Amino acid sequence: MYTLGELAQIVNGTVIGDARAEISGAEVLSRAQSGHISFLRSDKFKRELLSCQATAFVVPTGFFVDRPCIQVNEPEHAFSLIVAMFRRPIESRFSGISSAANISPRAKLGVGVTVYPGAFIDDDVTIGDGTTIHANVSVMAGCEIGREVNIFPNVVLYPGTCIGDRCNIHAGAVLGAHGFGYESSSGNHVLSAQLGNVVIEDDCDIGACATIDRGTYGQTRIGAGTKIDNLVMVGHNCTIGRKNLIVSQSGIAGSCTTGEFVIMAGQTGVGDHVSIGARAILCAKSGVMNDLPGDQMYAGIPVTPAKEQFQRLAAQSRIPAMRKEIAALRKQLETISRVLESGQRKDNNVTGQWNNAADLVEDVLTHSPSHPDKTQAA
């Protein structure tokens, strides 16, 4: 149990309202009850706030609600710190090198390395200080792993894979597998050279069941600070820039490059030998076939600047109404054609006198059921 004032000190925030309010837990808006603290990212969540029973909130600086709150510049980060106060992480009591791990005598392990049961560490592997290798991880020959790295269960590192400091490689990821490079000759598909490796720079996260293929001759490289989500595939010879965000089920074909701070939303597909500029944002399901300049948002298949894509979608949404308008115009033209072919005014809807074709058309349209004046009158 904490008071609102105590939590504000932890996150360096400003209390608005009763600082003595007692907080027993932290929950998101949809689940928060009396005694809980919740948070709002922006005013677009105000509707959820109306039905929320939370005692207090973490909100952006300058944002006011009708209950006690803590104002901070980064409410989501502050809320994560508060959640951690109520939900202490579960820490494993296991440490050291398990006797049930299979470790080559030629491997070099740093100080404070933990290796769980079932892990396999091959010849000439080096592992930095404070790194943890979880159960059933396979680290093949010649891999280099930095300091304070977490490699979760069932990860496979193919030979020569290099991982920088403070990386997290989540369960089931495969780094350094052969690239999908085949040459078709005499009716057979022959695998091309697979002599390169994978390099993961410092502070990267690789999601569960992600795959990153080794280079053909050189490196497939993931830039420092890049975060790759679950089920992402990065092809051979790619160079991914610093601090990219690549979201789940995205696929990047071979020999692609990205600048720094690129964002690929879910299920983005990138063709081979494509270059994407720094700070480009690719919306979900984008299909990228050609090079893209940076500092823009893109969407669609094939991808175009998002503004153009949204204009096309807006136009498509008007197609049903346009079809009705075209049908009405077709009826009007049929009426005009009948009058012109008969050479006389047999259509009861057509009245008045006309001296030329223009007068005829105006007369027919004026008395047509689909004419705007008749529609408004109806």
SSE order and pairing:
Blueprint: E1 2-3, H1 4-11, E2 14-16, E3 22-23, E4 25-26, E5 36-39, H2 46-51, E6 56-60, E7 69-72, H3 75-86, E8 102-103, E9 108-109, E10 114-115, E11 120-121, E12 126-127, E13 132-133, E14 138-139, E15 144-145, E16 150-151, E17 156-157, E18 162-163, E19 168-169, E20 174-177, E21 182-185, E22 188-191, E23 197-200, E24 205-206, E25 211-213, E26 219-222, E27 227-228, E28 233-234, E29 239-240, E30 245-246, E31 251-252, E32 257-258, E33 263-264, E34 269-270, E35 275-276, E36 281-282, E37 287-288, E38 297-299, E39 304-305, H4 306-317, H5 319-342, H6 357-366, H7 372-377
Parallel strand pairs: 4-5, 5-6, 6-7, 8-11, 9-12, 10-13, 11-14, 12-15, 13-16, 14-17, 15-18, 16-19, 17-20, 18-23, 19-24, 20-25, 23-26, 24-27, 25-28, 26-29, 27-30, 28-31, 30-33, 31-34, 32-35, 33-36, 34-37, 36-38
Antiparallel strand pairs: 1-3, 2-7, 21-22, 38-39
Low-confidence parts: 345-351, 374-378
Write down the Rg: 32 Å
Give the averaged pLDDT, no decimals. 89
Strand order across the largest sheet: 10-13-16-19-24-27-30-33-36-38-39
Total count of strands: 39
Percent of residues in β-strands:
25-35%
> Structural class given helices, strands, pairing?
alpha/beta
Q: What's the tally of helices?
A: 7
The biggest sheet amounts to:
11 strands, mixed
